[in-house]
Structure formats: C-alpha cells, structure tokens
Amino acid sequence: MSSAAISVDAARLPSPALRRFAWFVLVYFIAVILWGGLVRATGSGAGCGDHWPLCNGTVVQHSPRLDTMIEFTHRFTSGISFFSAVGLLVWTFAGTVKGHLARAAAVWTVVFTLVEAVLGALLVKLGLTAQSQSPLRAPYLALHLTNTLLLLAALTLSAHLLSRRQGYTRATVRLVAPIGAVAAVIVVMMVGVTGSLAALGDTLFPARSLGAALAQDFSATSGWLVRWRWTHPTVAFFASVFLIWLLVRASRRTAHWDNRGLSALVLVLLAAQYVLGVLDVVLLAPTWLQIAHLLGADVLWAALVVLTARVVLEPAKAGSRE
C-alpha cells in the first residue's frame, strides 16, 4: 500500500477524541446498568412510588429514604445516558464518512436507549418493582434484559467500528460465517436472560441456607420462578459449546488481525463468570456478589460482541494486522 493511499485512508478515520468518547459512553452505560442491578437487588424500585419521570411527584427530594435515593440516582444517571447516546449519534455522523458502519450502530444505540426508557417507565407504572410477585414481572424482566443486552451490543459495535482502521464501511467488509456467530450471540443472550430471572428469584424468595435453597428448587410448593433457577446454569453450560466454536474460529490468524489475545480474554472472563456463579449459589446471592456477577456478564458480553464483529465483519481487502 502506497504512502499516499495510507494518508488518504487516515484522513477518513474518526478523530481520537470521538473514539475515546464512544468507549467512555459504553463504560458509563455499564455503570448505569450496575446501578439498576442494585435497585433490583435491594428492592428499591418502588423508592419513588408510582411516579415517573418525577420521584414521589417532585424533582427535589426532602429527607429521602435510602430506597428513594437509590432509585432517584438510577433515574438521574439514566437520563444522562440518553443524552450521551444522542451526543454519540450526532458526533458519529459528523465525524465519519458516508457508509461508515458505526453510523448504523449509533442509530440503534439511541433506539434501544429510548426503548429502555419506555420499559423503565412501564416497570414503575405497572408496579413491577420492589417485592412485586406479579406474573407479568418475570416476562417483563426478560424483555427488559434483552433490550439492555442489545443496547450494550450497539454501543460496543459503535466504539469498535469507530476504532477500526480498515473494514469500517459497507463497501469494505465481507460477511464470514454469520449464522454460527449469530447463534452463539443469541445463546449468550439466553444465558443473560435466565440469569436475570434467577437473580429475581433470589431477591423475591431468599433462602437462609444452601440446603434450604436446594430444597426450594425442587419443592412442588415453590413458585415456578424458584423451581426454574436451574435453567440458568444449564443454559450457561450448553452456551459454552457455541462459545468454544467461536473462540476456535476467532483464534485463527488472518491477514487482517490477530484475535488470539481477545479470545483469551473472553475465555478468562467466561471462567470468572463460572466461579462467580458458583459463589452466588454457595453464598446465597448477597447483593455485592450479584453486582460483581452482573459486571462480569456485561464485560464478557462486550468482549464477545467485539470478537464476533472481528470474525463476521472481515475487511474485504488484506491489510496490516490490528
């Protein structure tokens, strides 16, 4: 490749500031999601009553309870996340060339953020918070978690595609093994959804000991949410098969980049999730461990999305490795 071609290509790349901002927004969104997990784990979802977007009908809270502070903080940070997503969208369109794949990812980021806000509002208005055992809560939570994962995926793709030096427009990429990769991602999403339902069961029906928890799982008198807690580790086990396929394929060195380091990171994060999952069961899911498990899941999901993008969206022309 000539120096002239390199300079022209470099001129088409997004600014370093835009790339850093995209990764910052991703980290911020993960922090907001973790705080949302704290809201659920502590039963603080009803801290603002059934009012939305106001908290207990007002903006300024006078002598608020702890659950009110937790819920109000989540709403405030979620509001900032929306403006961050819009800012990323505007900056991405202004700072990239026509046909840049990050533009589509940024659009979907805003769409999923809006859906997240609507789902959050309905969660409050329908009373599916705190200790609510409504039959609507579990499927609603599954829908909410699915949208959250799609939102994180769109954000991660935005940051990744903005950071690419080749293969970042529709005309310069080719699809490689998309069916298998998409299947792997869907299965991992199922792990996340079943994990959120298991966490809800731990919150609504806490056990005093490991033996009592196991008895709950197999008791005919327990609610289906408790008796289905076994689905999470089971789905996680079978998801490993798909992940192994993806990791083996990604570990092959190509003319464009070397994925071995990222594959190793995904493998380490996966192992850490299994360890945290076992501790979650043994220690009866304390709040801090639930948040640590959620953090590991979010980071693993982001790393997996990047790895999948590098495998599936391969640059059409050979170049130097990234």
Automatic annotation (TrEMBL):
Compartment list: Membrane
Keywords associated with the record: Cell membrane, Disulfide bond, Heme biosynthesis, Iron, Membrane, Metal-binding, Oxidoreductase, Transmembrane, Transmembrane helix
Signal peptide: none
Pfam family, one: COX15-CtaA
GO-annotated biological processes: heme A biosynthetic process
One GO cellular component term: membrane
Organism domain of life: Bacteria
Membrane disposition: Multi-pass membrane protein
One of the record's GO molecular function terms: metal ion binding
Annotated PANTHER family: HEME A SYNTHASE (PTHR35457)
Protein name according to UniProt: COX15/CtaA family protein
